[in-house]
UniProtKB/TrEMBL annotation:
It comes from the Bacteria. This is IS30 family transposase. Residues 61-96 are annotated as: Disordered. Residues 184-347 form the Integrase catalytic domain. It comes from Arthrobacter burdickii. Residues 84-96 have a biased composition (Basic residues). Keywords: DNA recombination. Pfam families: HTH_38 (PF13936). InterPro entries: Integrase_cat-core, IS30-like_HTH, RNaseH-like_sf, RNaseH_sf, Transposase-Integrase, Transposase_IS30-like. Residues 61-83 have a biased composition (Basic and acidic residues).
Amino acid sequence: MIGTRYRNQRAARPRVSRKPASGRYLCLRERLQMADLLRLGCSLRAIGRELGRHASTIKRELDRHRDSKGRYLPRVADHDARQQRRRPRERKLRASQRLRSLVQAKLASRWSPEQICGWLAQSFPAEPGLRLCPETIYQALLFHDDGGLRSDGKPRLRTGRKIRKHRWRTGPGHGPVVKNMTMISERPAVVEARTEAGHWEGDLIVGAGSVSAMVTLRERKTHYGIIINLPHGHTAALTNQAIITAFSDIPAHLKRTITWDQGVEMARHQELAAATGVRIFFAERSSPWQRGANENFNGLARQYFPKGTDLSIHSDDHVREVCGELNTRPRKSLGYLTPVANFHAERRVTTRVSE
């Protein structure tokens, strides 16, 4: 942990370049020669041959450094190019109060850096100064150079993480305990393609001491999620009843399959399939990536229901409120639309066809 922190702090230090100018960049002499050749009416290819540069290099130079009247002034261009190459640059979040305020507001609403950057690009397409990449926000928050992104005593990222977290391999789990499983290898190809709605992935998130739990379900195409609290235990019977209740208001065309892990809560999966009409498939042991949509949803839910806490204290109204908040967040994979909008669109489309 300490070594990781030192490594991150070192990576965050600004690097000042002291290397002499290389032939990679145009120098003042070349820019003066370029301006003279332009006045003589030479083409870009001819100028490139004279300077020993590619014609596209000449074109980019002119595109970058012509003034508002279309003139190319070589000394001004050389000064501007040197300024643009200076390191370290001023942090973008420090330079723009408006951009900093927009990012801070979305962080306070528990948006991820990637969601914030996608929303900025979609909401302000004509303002390049309001564009960011997610890594800019991560560096501001994780490298102790917040650029004004204040936490007010709260975690600045949804995970609560303060340093980079490395992924570690875990050992194999226990042997199979669920009988008569239909494995994921037998699942129809259309499920993997995500071209058809109604295919779900499910799991449990467990509270302190494995006493309380919550069922989480996520639809693969629309990313619509459902959370059901199990405050009094997570036996196979209670898990079945929770899923049956959750699916009771969903039309048949939006409940086709469920993919689950090999947890003991699915010991009565055949009864669940008979009650709901949903085909149930099981992922391989220790293969969470085979249920990636649900694993992602569990991570989002854990922001509200942290590990090691008693999940039974949360009321049904609070759980529904959390579901609503998660389903109304924009998703990059959906073109920054929301899961609830996509889910309702799938419901409406099929309803109109059936009519």
